[in-house]
Design goal:
121 residues; alpha+beta; three-stranded antiparallel sheet; three-stranded mixed sheet; 6 strands; binds zinc ion
Length: 121
């Protein structure tokens, strides 16, 4: 099954996102805010956001996507080219990645089994 870039990005976002927030500045410097809940902001804060021509008003909570040490706003486009590169790598090497994760899992089990067992009281 071949997914479109949009479908792949939706899955990637779901896998690497954190819960929403009222206002977030993306790693690229653009600030996004949830304009549907002005009561969630301090009065001067929402005033400044509304008058910031570079701030982007959304009508939903600001979702954060985190990867490679960056915090990106899901609605921003700045991270999507890099995410598609990662998605293509993951998709092209899915069996090797699964083997790698399974090998790490086995190593962790071996380490755990090597620990002395402590009797509970
Ligand atoms: Zn951005």
């Amino acid at each position: 099954m071949v997914l479109s870039d949009q479908e792949s990005l939706k899955i990637f976002t779901s896998a690497f996102s954190d819960s929403g927030s009222c206002s977030v500045t993306c790693s690229c410097g653009t600030t996004f805010y949830d304009a549907s809940k002005p009561g969630a902001f301090e009065e001067d804060e929402i005033y400044q956001l509304r008058h910031n021509v570079e701030a982007v008003a959304l009508q939903w909570p600001v979702e954060i996507v985190e990867f490679e040490g960056g915090y990106f706003v899901a609605d921003c486009d700045c991270w999507k080219t890099r995410a598609l590169q990662l998605i293509n790598f993951i998709d092209a090497h899915d069996h090797k990645i699964a083997a790698y994760l399974n090998a790490r899992r086995e190593a962790a089990f071996a380490d755990a089994k090597a620990l002395p067992e402590v009797a509970s009281a």
